[in-house]
Amino acid sequence: MIEPQEQIDRKAIIVWRWSGFIASAVSALLAAVLFYLAHRFHWPGCIPVVLAAGVLAEIVLTVLVMPELRWKRWRYEVREDEIMLQQGVMFVKRTLIPMVRIQHVDTNQGPLLRAYGLSGITFSTAAGSHQIPALTSETAEALRVRIAELAKVSHEDL
Predict the structure, then answer these.
(1) Do the beta carbons of residue 16 and residue 70 sit within 8 Å?
(2) Residue 101 to residue 26: CA distance in whole angstroms
(3) Is 125 within 8 Å of 101 (Cβ atoms)?
(4) Would you say 78 and 96 are in contact if contact means Cβ atoms under 8 Å apart?
(5) Which of 1, 36, 84, 151 has the fewest CB atoms within 10 Å distance of its CB?
(6) What is the Rg, in whole angstroms, of the alpha carbon atoms belonging to the chain?
(7) What does each C-alpha distance from 103 to 97, 131, 138, 143, 154 come to in angstroms?
(8) Whole-number Å distance between alpha carbons of 11 and 127
(9) How does pLDDT run along the chain (158 residues), one tens digit per residue?
């Protein structure tokens, strides 16, 4: 199978790092509470070590390693009759969505994406929804309009 050619915006790495940092901070807070309880109730000494190692591993993976790897693998391509998506780090998933199946398309933008001028595109079919996660807002809007137009044309051909 031919790989999709378009990449998402490189600023996605920064957004994913911030997301990983926030998730890791929550885990660290939970680990701190468990560390306190372990000290307070004299639990075995290995518990704080395991907690610290787990939080450190999470930080390394979600903040330093995975965002770059995810970005390198994320590809998409919008063709006249289909949308091709490729994602995944260890297990690469390729999805082909026919334009005739697309029922709805929109852009979305949370606080982190907005801070970096990015938007995601979500398109829905009867079987579920798919997303292109991080494009410049201008690119996302233009692609949303293009997909909507191609899906409309595909539906009219039926």
Answers:
(1) yes
(2) 39
(3) yes
(4) no
(5) 1
(6) 20
(7) 11, 14, 22, 15, 11
(8) 30
(9) 688 999 999 999 999 999 999 999 999 999 999 989 998 999 898 888 898 999 999 999 999 999 999 999 999 999 999 999 999 999 999 999 999 999 999 999 999 999 999 999 999 999 999 999 999 999 999 999 999 999 987 667 65
Buried b (16+ CB within 10 A) or exposed e, 102-129: beebebebeebbeebebbbbebbeeeee
Amino acid in the structure at residue 106: D
The pTM of this model reads 0.89
Distance between CA atoms of 28 and 103, rounded to whole angstroms?
Answer: 42
What tokens does 139 get?
Answer: 């690119």
Own/partner long-range contacts of 70-74 (Cβ < 8 Å, ≥24 apart): 70/12, 70/13, 70/16, 71/7, 71/8, 71/10, 71/12, 71/13, 71/16, 74/7, 74/8, 74/12, 74/133
Q: What's the token pair of residue 125?
A: 């079919």
**Sole residue written with tokens 């998402």:** 8
Amino acid at position 65, single letter: V
